[in-house]
Amino acid sequence: MKPFSSLLMLVLFSFYFLPGTAQEYNESPQIRAMKSISSHELLDYVSELASDKYGGRLTGTAGYDSAASWLIRHFKDWGIKGKAPAGGYLQHFDIPYTRVYPGCKVTMHLPQGDKEILKHYDYVEEFIPGATSDSGTVKAEVVYAGYGITAPELGYDDYKDVDVDGKIVMLEREAPLNPSEDTALFRKWKPYSFHQYKLRNAVRHGAAGMLYNYGPIVNPNNAYEEGFIYSHVGDTVVSDVFAGTGHTHQEVVGSIRKNLEPFSFSTGKKFTITNHTKHFPNGRGSNVIGYIEGSDPQLKDEVIIVGAHLDHLGRCWELIPGANDNASGVAVMMSVARALAQYEIPMKRSVMFLALGAEEQGIFGSKVYLDNPSYPPEKTSAMLNIDGVGVGNKIGVTAGENHPGLYAFIEKANDQYIHRHLNPSTFLNNTRPRLDAARFMKAGIPILSFYAYGAPSVYHQPGDDVDKITPEIMEETAQLLFMSLIEMANQ
User: Fold this and answer.
1) According to the model, what pLDDT value does residue 8 have?
2) Could you give the C-alpha distances from 74 to 11, 308, 403, 444, in angstroms and in order?
3) Distance (Å, rounded) from C-alpha 447 to C-alpha 83?
4) What CATH number does the domain containing 455 carry?
């Protein structure tokens, strides 16, 4: 029989090397909390938000409100308090929206002697209804009107030599020059790059409808004008409009961009656009705001924002689930929030969790927040934006090169814990805002915006569903943000 002391040593030796015992005991609370962030948790969050019950989370709809309530319940369960400027978790704002219903069509009329052949285009692959179109039908000739810009101070007018009254215009998106090549010149053209401007300018010139060369993708970031019918189209429709005109689309666009001169003309093609929609001018949306107060008597008045837009595109007319864009970002934000709160990680600065509404409707929720913030910009140390982090095997960090001091926290945490490929980039931020972080950067707040890449993804179409998600990249992004955030908050 072995002596008691030998048996005791054997037991203690075995206990130390059993997984989940002594090793875990010796780990810091931060490491244990980081390890609690799992791909299973993240995938559950994404699956919930992308489910049919929330109807695509278009801001203003009951589906969006339900998603906001679901998030707030989690914040409350974790002990994360509300920090909306008026109290509670919700920062409300007005936001009109439009519902799109089945039966929308785009059709080309081809003359065949005294008859005509109808060519019907395929939904999603060849056209998608305008997400702010009025309901109705327009049948008319198509006039190509370039970028749809009237800018007397620039000596440019796409409508100068064409009559579009009662007709359908075909327009290009953006402006006819590269914003990164001549920043000063692009600033003069920037106001004309907005979708809302192009649509309203078409209406001012008497157009009855629009074929917008944009994807085709779903995009509710546009104006609503009573009686105006439009759809987004892709290469097939564009090619059919140009066929037989003596011009190619590539030639015409190249000429406009090279010379900065209009190249508008009547195409002789007749189209019908039919959309079934209903507009809601009195929609009401919200941002969801929670926070963990810092422990330092002075630094707790400073905040680091972890943000992700909660909204997506609703139905157009099918459900647009928005699993990657941006249920993935909200899921990562939630996992970071849960780990910090449940493990009671000490932080000197306060940390805010900002789920933004109406990102897809003109980056409007972030404008609302910055117009009436919970913390003033000068007390906001950073905004870490999470948008589209669910598909891929690499992590991109927009503005990482703009803010090297801030990015150093990310790089250090990645080297120590994650070891994932990181790609920091420079963010010029001189175009119309396309992500929430852009507005914060304009307000003088240092930003980093995280996204995943390296695998095919679906953007603003019905196929952005849970089956496309890579849970592992979300897990590592969340763990990376978690460890970086603790260091930032305690510096």
Assistant:
1) 46
2) 42, 16, 32, 31
3) 20
4) 3.40.630.10
Q: Is there a single domain that holds both residue 110 and residue 90? A: no
Pairing status of strand 380-386 against strand 81-82: unpaired
Which domain range does residue 415 map to? 29-95+283-490
- What amino acid is encoded at 368 in this protein? V
What the block records as the tokens of 130 is 């305008």
Cβ–Cβ under 8 Å, residues 447 and 304? no
The one-letter amino acid code at 55 reads G
Structural domain ending residue among the three candidates 279, 301, 323: 279
Tokens 């979300």 found at: 474
> Tokens representing 60?
């203003």
> Which distant-in-sequence residues (6+ apart) come within 8 Å of 405 by Cβ?
none
CA nearest neighbour of 333 among 370, 384, 391: 384
User: Bridge-partner residues for 488, per DSSP?
Assistant: none
Helix (H, G, I), strand (E, B) or coil at 447: strand
Read off the amino acid at residue 355.
A
Give 154-157's long-range contacts (Cβ < 8 A, gap of 24+). 154/188, 154/189, 154/260, 156/260, 156/261, 156/262, 157/262
- The closest alpha carbon to 388, from 345, 436, 450, belongs to 450
C-alpha distances in Å from residue 69, one per residue of 76, 89, 224, 330, 359: 11, 10, 28, 14, 18
- Token pair belonging to 250: 């590539």
| Whether residue 255 is found in the same domain as residue 377 | no
List of the chain residues with pLDDT < 70: 1-25
